[in-house]
Amino acid sequence: MQQDVPWLSDEERARLSAPVNQRAVVFTLAFTGLVAAFMMTLLTPLVPSLPALLDVSPEDGQWAVTVTLLAAAVSTPIAGRLGDLYGKRRMVLVLLALVIVGSVVALFSSSLIPLIVGRALQGAGIGVIPLGVSILRDVLHRDRLGGAVALVSATLGVGGAVGLPVAAVISQYLDWHALFIVSGLLAAVGLVLVWRMIPVSTLRSEGRFDVLGAIGLAVGLTGVLLGVSKGGSWGWGSPLTLGSLIGGAVVLLAWGVFELRTSSPLIDLRVAASRTVLLTNLASITVGFAFFASTVVLPQLLEAPTGTGVGLGQTMLVASLCLMPSGLVMWAMSPVAARLIKARGARSSFMLGIAIIAVGYVLALFLMTEVWHTIVIATAVGFGVGFAYSSMPTLIMAAVPATETAASNGLNSVMRTLGSTIASAVLGVVLAGNLVTANGVTTPSASAFQVTFVISAIAAAVGVVLTVFIPRHSAAVRGASLPD
């Protein structure tokens, strides 16, 4: 599958002569995906303690989490385009190196600003997942591709769900800086594995890197995501929130016009506007929303005191363990999803996954009074997300040219992040606006939790409707990644 190309060095040409160990490639990319996803939830158990640890306000402390989402959303499509142009393996190495640097910066931080810088660098690492999916397309035999893509795609959910209890244990029993020792070591192991196991990239796009396009996308996305994520604390009608949202939207509109006119765009919007890609990305927003909802709402329900008659009174560690089955199910469902994709197509698997998520949230309306109820709901959501996440890259790659796989998968990852950010903002407003107090303790009311479940079910239902209109077979694309 590899070919001789002029931009390879003598060392890289020599590496191409060695046979590719396909199992090692899949293991390596799945491992790096888990590491990157772990970075997203690394500080989640510490959020309530950050104000005291850093001597800042709760709103300022939240930036250590918010900046990771922003960095992931901005860097992922840029890293994807760089991977298409200069080599996907090379960009995976760069991103893992950034995670290591970010871990070192955060390890030695004792104030908010250095921690934010370190967390931003760690967030950039999430781009290894769409890059890894694109590498699989370039390297693996077609018969093994479906299962491998499903597995690596699922790591986005698995790493976060499994990483939560690990982070909770470290936070509870060790100095919180130990989190960054673990993250740095994991990223270093991933970097060595990629260096040794992943062949150099030979399939690359022609053209140049669109610097202005990258700056425009970064500014526009940051404005929109910042407004959505901080609107609750800034006030939805405040000049800061409105300025971020409107300003970001205007920049993105101008960016889109510029991208359509440039000869070597950061993201080919004509490809992104094709029916399959557009509807898949829109549906991905709903999946990101519904999945993140479970990680926002269920822990609050589990950890709220029982005195109000709403909460379940569990510790942070127990709450994290209750969500772990969700991640394990995603992992277990990846080969099942791959077989369904092969038999019935990625569209069917995608639709089934979102439908299962919707059913899970409907059940949540009636199952919210016992600990095992939350485990059932989290597991049901995990089932659905496992099918959905496994299907998205296959749908995208079947509808885009082979030279656009990394950038297109990166854009899809941004859509999931956008959904997660919207979920955090919307559901946070619902939970904060409907409170009940007993014995001096205030928690969200039972009706607040039920409203969040209804909203999440509606979001998933919208995703099902969008999926219905995805073509069963993509229109012929010249040099498609996964031609029909």
From TrEMBL:
One Pfam family it belongs to: MFS_1
Segments forming domain Major facilitator superfamily (MFS) profile: 25-475
Keywords, ordered alphabetically: Membrane, Transmembrane, Transmembrane helix, Transport
GO terms, molecular function: transmembrane transporter activity
Any one GO cellular component localisation term in the record: plasma membrane
PROSITE patterns recorded: MFS
Localisation per UniProt entry: Cell membrane
Membrane topology label: Multi-pass membrane protein
Segments traversing the membrane: 24-43, 63-80, 92-110, 116-136, 148-170, 176-197, 209-228, 240-258, 278-297, 317-338, 350-369, 375-402, 414-436, 448-470
Protein name per the record: MFS family permease
Species this chain originates from: Herbiconiux flava
